[in-house]
Design a protein that fits this description.
By secondary structure, the protein is α+β, with helices and mostly antiparallel strands. The protein has one domain. It has a five-stranded antiparallel β-sheet. A hairpin with a 6-residue loop joins strand 1 and strand 2.
């Protein structure tokens, strides 16, 4: 009788054990989204939506970064973004090696963000290399970015994620 491999036990996040590194990447990607939101801040996010032209039915079109991540509506993008922003802010403060997961029970989306390195720019600006992995609407995405802390002590709000 042929032997079959036993199924891997599921973790609390619903992913098999072997997806641990992928979950880290997922959370990192989500942190990137959070980074976008942290960079923009609540006021900036409102401004970002306001910059987009209105659709014929009177609503706003989906922001480009939301569409690129696979979002279908602003509500999910905003809801996930708030969670991702918190994770990103924590990773930026914790430093290299830090990682944070986020998961939105309402949307079913999740991600991980981590600080993969640190550097110092001319003038003494502290910078962080970041990575993220998100699962948005059943689609995984990986991205990397770098951001620096300005002279005012705040992290640069314009984290530019580059998809891998």
């Amino acid at each position: 009788m042929p032997r079959t491999a036993a199924p891997q036990p599921a973790r609390p996040n619903g992913l098999p054990e072997s997806d641990g590194p992928n979950m880290v990447l997922l959370l990192f990607a989500l942190a990137v989204v959070i980074g976008l939101l942290v960079g923009l801040g609540a006021r900036g996010l409102t401004r970002a939506y306001a910059r987009h032209p209105q659709t014929p039915h009177g609503g706003h079109s989906l922001p480009a970064e939301a569409a690129e991540l696979g979002y279908h509506n602003e509500q999910d993008f905003t809801s996930d973004g708030k969670l991702a922003a918190v994770a990103l802010a924590e990773v930026l403060e914790a430093g290299p090696g830090a990682q944070r997961l986020w998961e939105n029970a309402e949307t079913g989306n999740r991600g991980v963000v981590w600080a993969s390195g640190a550097s110092e720019r001319a003038g003494g600006a502290l910078c962080r290399s970041l990575a993220r992995r998100t699962l948005i609407n059943n689609k995984f995405q990986n991205a990397e970015a770098e951001t620096c802390r300005g002279g005012n002590g705040h992290w640069d709000a314009t984290v530019q994620w580059q998809n891998e």
